[in-house]
Specification:
Blueprint (H helix, E strand, L loop, with lengths): L1 H31 L5 H18 L9 H4 L3 H27 L3 H8 L4 H14 L1 H9 L3 H24 L5 H23 L12 H10 L1 H25 L5 H34 L8 H34 L4 H9 L1 H9 L1 H9 L3 H7 L1
């Protein structure tokens, strides 16, 4: 009973903290959408989709092994490896983009210096991940939540302030997104230094290699699954950009952002804490009943917001964002079936991770 109560409290703590960050962003959106045109949102959606897709894989999913690893020193090695792998992935991405036709990149992304901008965004997304996993591992849920809220406040204030100062362009939005991702990680880095040492240069190559080898099976199975999940989210924007105007992409991008904000906050809380709980189970201990219970409750809980969005999506977006964003509300209502599945699949993925049935995650996705 005590374990169940602690699990629920951890979920609520992390969810409320994540939700606080999302609420800050949501409260800023009605102001931001009256400063920035849909076309600027469309450009941001294209850039951020690519950065999120590659940046989400920049650690090769080794950041999740930090939570699973029980040895403190090995966890520190995994954190350091994640940082270096992210730098390498960002560098390779930048090189690939650099050798592509500049006119093609500019025509597609509609921004100057696209290789540099995108590779930096990939780097910042990648290096933000390991410290979050380390915080969850040692149950620093409140610290993590506070860091998320601070990052969201800075991001929102940056976009609004720079927009009113005469810079209502995609670059302003992109810097705000990067700051909102990177600042929480930097705060956690400072907090975690009290309990963990960050071995950026001091580790031997043999130590790094052993940690990589130990979880190589995990990376090989999880990267394809994460790539598929990322493509589900980001590929539509990257494909639509070939056929539709930036303004239309802006409708889709904003709709996806708004409906995923609370869902991602909830799913992160469920996924991280449920994975941490499963990792703490003793060998052979049964957790089937708990899994069925959480899956059933999620399925019932998700029906309410999904039904409201399907019925009144356009009206809600017009009411909050203004008449010019009615198209975004229509798009949001079309995404409801997909959104429902996103909500209820989180615990399934975590069970498969702990059971080391990683190949089934790809099939399930």
């Amino acid at each position: 009973m005590a374990k169940k109560s602690s699990f629920l409290i951890n979920i609520i703590t992390l969810f409320v903290s994540n939700l606080g960050a999302q609420v800050v962003a949501l409260l800023a959106i009605p102001i931001v959408t009256r400063i920035f045109l849909p076309a600027e949102y469309g450009k941001l959606a294209m850039l951020w989709s690519l950065a999120s897709l590659v940046g989400g894989l920049a650690c090769l999913k080794y950041e999740e092994t930090i939570i699973l690893e029980k040895d403190k020193y090995t966890s520190e090695i995994l954190v350091s490896n994640c940082l270096w792998i992210s730098i390498l992935i960002a560098f390779i991405s930048g090189l690939i983009l650099y050798f592509m036709d500049e006119s093609v990149l500019q025509a597609y992304f509609k921004i100057d210096n696209a290789p540099l901008v995108i590779s930096l965004a990939i780097l910042f997304v990648g290096i933000s991940k390991p410290h979050v996993s380390l915080a969850v591992k040692i149950k620093y849920f409140r610290q993590y939540g506070l860091a998320m809220v601070i990052g969201a406040i800075f991001s929102a204030c940056w976009k609004i302030a720079m927009g009113y100062q005469g810079y209502p362009y995609v670059e302003t939005l992109l810097v705000g997104n990067v700051a909102g991702t990177l600042i929480p990680s930097m705060i956690l880095l400072v907090v975690l230094r009290k309990r963990f040492k960050i071995h950026f240069f001091s580790l031997k190559l043999s130590c790094r290699y052993n940690a990589i080898k130990q979880y190589a099976y995990f990376s090989k199975k999880q990267v394809p699954n994460a790539l598929l999940n990322g493509l589900q989210l980001q590929a539509p924007v990257l494909i639509f950009a070939l056929y539709y105007s930036p303004a239309t992409i802006g409708y889709y991008g904003l709709a996806q952002t708004i409906i995923l904000m609370p869902v991602n906050a909830f799913n992160r809380a469920i996924s991280k804490i449920y994975l941490q709980k499963l990792a703490a189970y003793e060998e052979g201990q049964d957790y089937y009943q708990g899994f069925i219970s959480i899956l059933r409750n999620l399925a019932l809980l998700a029906l309410i917001p999904c039904a409201v969005l399907a019925a009144y999506g356009s009206e809600l977006f017009v009411l909050v964002l203004g008449n010019e964003w009615q198209g975004a509300g229509y798009v949001a209502s079309l995404l409801v079936p997909w959104l429902y599945m996103v909500i209820i699949k989180a615990p399934v993925t975590q069970v498969l991770i702990v059971k080391k049935k990683l190949k089934y995650i790809l099939v399930f996705s």
